[in-house]
Design goal:
This protein is of the alpha/beta class. It contains 18 helices and 14 strands. Strands 1, 2, 3, 4, 5, 6, 7, 8, 9, 10, 11 and 14 form a twelve-stranded mixed β-sheet that branches. Strands 12-13 form a two-stranded antiparallel ribbon.
């Protein structure tokens, strides 16, 4: 009897081993399979965060989320991936600041989380500012809570119910932003920029403070000139940050400020900044909003010798728009859109990056890509992280990028 049990056990183990080896082989084959996801860069060269850190200069990054409910800490994946790419391993304890409404100082609008990151010897410093504005829209979206309650949810298939819950969460945000008469989301973002420009190198900010950033426009411009500023936005956040930058442009076109501070204005006009737009939605959101006051005059403002060259806001605003073609909520930025809907005074230069951040699956002979993954996987994609961290100025020398992406230079940008 014991011999029979031993023989049976041996056959059992052999079978399990064979089955396990087959599964492992298939997993390894899948892992070793060539990554065929596209990555095409169409536009100009742009700097990454490393270009400033390598000079020993402090870099400040503001992260603005997009549609859907977010909580403080939502930028942890992308910020830590960027830090790893840049060799920044020493993090400060996070500081949380309550963004208050300048029009009603008792009203809390959003959360601003600040984390300082350094390399081991302290020679490089990156300050992350993470804005979370979801609380502004949360109350208004509760009108749809009934739709995913037990009374209605049981009538749907589980997958469809999950999709309905997702759409109920993300769908209202753009409508609220476009129709909000108080502009609370934009106000919160302007306050976040104010604190970013006024907070020195991050240490001056107190944890858990609750007050309005009342720094003067001139002081904000001084901070803008002093620090290297990078913006990282997701979906709706791209529109929000462009509108917030519009306020700075108007300030720089104030004749009194220009006349009283020509040296400061001149330094800002020589400044280059970058906005990395993940899952960009600029064209979609333009449908319900007016165009800027000055459009279609980029050469006049941005080319040396142009009629309005002395009244430009910046030397260049690099707009790097990441779009997964399978992301149903993302759009490329065409030259026609640049000419008609981007403020010429910003001197915008657009680079579109068409990149698959979600895997293509095969189901019943049909190629399928999860649109939610295509909308949200930018934060963890190695190619996105590399481009944000190091840019594409040394594309040919960057073995990782040149192997995984294709660069198409668009002339006259």
């Amino acid at each position: 009897m014991k011999k029979l049990l031993l023989i049976a056990l041996m056959f059992s183990l052999t079978g399990c081993y064979s089955f396990g080896r087959g599964v492992a082989s298939r997993v390894i084959e899948n892992l070793e399979r060539e990554d065929t996801r596209q990555c095409e860069i169409r536009g100009s060269q742009f700097n990454g965060i490393a270009s400033y850190l390598d000079k020993g200069e402090v870099v400040k990054v503001l992260v603005v989320h997009g549609i859907g409910t977010h909580r403080p800490g939502h930028s942890a994946i992308i910020s830590e991936n960027i830090a790893r790419s840049l060799g920044l391993y020493n993090f400060s304890k996070p500081k949380d600041v309550d963004i208050m409404n300048p029009g009603n100082p008792a009203q809390r609008l959003a959360n601003l989380r600040i984390i300082t990151m350094r390399n081991p010897d302290g020679s490089q410093k990156l300050v992350f500012y993470e804005l979370t504005w979801s609380d502004i829209t949360a109350d208004r979206k509760r009108v749809l809570d009934f739709d995913t309650s037990g009374e209605f949810a049981h009538r749907r298939a589980s997958f469809n119910n999950a999709m309905k819950a997702f759409l109920n969460d993300v769908g209202p945000d753009p409508m609220i932003y476009v129709t909000d008469r108080e502009n609370l989301i934009l106000t919160a973002t302007q306050q976040a920029i104010c604190w970013m420009l006024a907070s020195g190198e991050g240490e001056e900010m107190e944890d858990n403070q609750r007050r309005v950033c009342s720094v003067s426009s001139l002081a904000r411009l001084s901070g803008l000139e002093k620090y290297n500023i990078v913006f990282i936005t997701h979906s709706l956040g791209s529109r929000i940050i462009m509108d917030a930058l519009g306020e700075i442009v108007e300030t720089l076109n104030n004749d009194q400020i220009v006349a009283g501070n020509p040296a400061l204005v001149s330094k800002i006009q020589a400044k280059e900044m970058t906005v990395f737009m993940l899952s960009n939605q600029m064209p979609l959101l333009q449908i319900g909003l007016p165009a800027p006051k000055v459009v279609g005059q980029i050469d006049s403002y941005c080319q040396e010798g142009g009629q309005n060259f002395a009244r430009r806001a910046f030397k260049k605003l690099d707009i790097v728009a990441f779009t997964d073609p399978n992301d149903l909520l993302s759009y490329s930025i065409t030259q026609d859109f640049v000419d008609h809907y981007l403020d010429s005074r910003m001197c915008p230069v657009v680079t579109n990056i068409h990149i698959n951040v979600a895997e293509r699956l095969s189901a019943f002979g049909i190629d399928v890509v999860n649109p939610i993954s295509a909308h949200g996987n930018y934060d963890s994609d190695e190619r996105v992280i590399e481009l944000v961290s190091h840019g594409n100025t040394a594309f040919d020398q960057n073995e990782f990028l040149s192997d995984r992406c294709r660069m198409i230079h668009i002339e006259n940008q």
